[in-house]
Amino acid sequence: MYTEFLSFPRDFAWGTATASYQIEGAVNEDGRGKSIWDTFSHIKGNTADGETGDIACDHYRRYQEDVRLMRGLGIKNYRCSIAWPRIIPSGNGASSRCGVSGNVNQKGLDFYDRLFDGCLENGITPWVTLFHWDLPQTLQDKGGFANRDCAGYFCDYTDKVTSHFGDRIKNWITINEPWVYSFCGHLYGVHAPGVRDTGAALSVAHNVLLAHGMSLPIIRKNVPGAKAGIANNIAWVESAGSRQEDTEAAKRWDMAFNRWFTDPLFGKGYPEEMVRWYGKNMPGIKDGDFDHIACPMDFLAVNYYTRRLVAHDETDSHIKAKQVYRPHIQRQEFEEWENFPEGLYRALVDIKERYGDIPVYITENGASCHDKISGDGCVHDPARVEYLRRHFAAAWQAIKDGCDLRGYFVWSLYDNLEWGFGFTKRFGFVYIDRENNLKRIVKDSGHFIASVYEKNGFTVD
Ligand code: FCB
Hints:
The protein is α/β, with parallel strands linked by helices.
């Protein structure tokens, strides 16, 4: 049988990713303020089984064990996020940018000092996301990101964090998935803060992009040798049918989901056709906004999970489009998430064609499966191994075809609080045994990842 070893470039950054609210727990510890996810998850009906991040994976207390776990698996790059309300519990930085004073919580800084130093001592490079959705509740009380001032608050927070950690931490991701934050949180209402309003979602989207762009010069000022970018979620979008109205709906979906958030980063503004579509729901845009948003980045980070098949839907009040699910298609436990590695390849090529030679990192990719501890005490997750193998191969092909892909972070280190889905979705390559003191058990996929990372590639038939 013919086999081939798919080898990745030297210096390719293999890693894994997590987010503060999904793993840390210890929500009332050491002066942490409340976040919008604390508020949201504690409202009955908002999360599966009423689960919250109060304990999550207890990473706040068990971070040393977790760092050792990563080291044991040979993980060299760890993307995690800082909880804004641990650093500035009241949300506000003391600065002229917003004119409100707020205190930095030293104990919050101390925790991340311990974590990051622990990573570095173990040969693990931290990649830090500044905002993975846990906005301080006090800022939500002032309108959250629907209020343009929030971009200024974010800059203050960025200033505090990057001036403190900038001597050691060089890789920064400003915002995680602006589409999910703005639309799931402010149009569909399924994420915190649970708002349902198109105009609000578009304002949030704009202000989040603004916050990203305005924070880049601050990061560069504070961090010698910084590498900074944003993490956009991308989906490969295709029309579910050959009718013209379906093709048009798919095009709108692509513009609203992908291009709305990436075009302006590269100086192209918002897609014209969608600006017309949104009409009176368009956010207030000031002169100079697009210059801030297009502040050059060192890389574009992308989170990829699936393809979206889209058809026209007259009843959809947003863009008259809906996703179509075909029963025969192989998918993840997430009902709507089709396994479609080719979409990753195409999306990477599309980025190169559309935006030129920007270095790209895949900062999230992974699969949710029905994992169980089997009789031998192990967790066998062949579907996840297969998912990853096929997506790694798609990434390899994209590099071969000229994409400047520099790294790959598998979501996620371990099973964690999957937002509104609570603990019902397991994405980890390490199992968390919720019946047994949150014991960590490396799944088969964890061993597979360890071997790929060690060899910087893998064999395919
Ligand atoms: C992404 C999020 C991440 C996780 C994965 C499954 O949209 O960034 O926190 O929930 O999906």
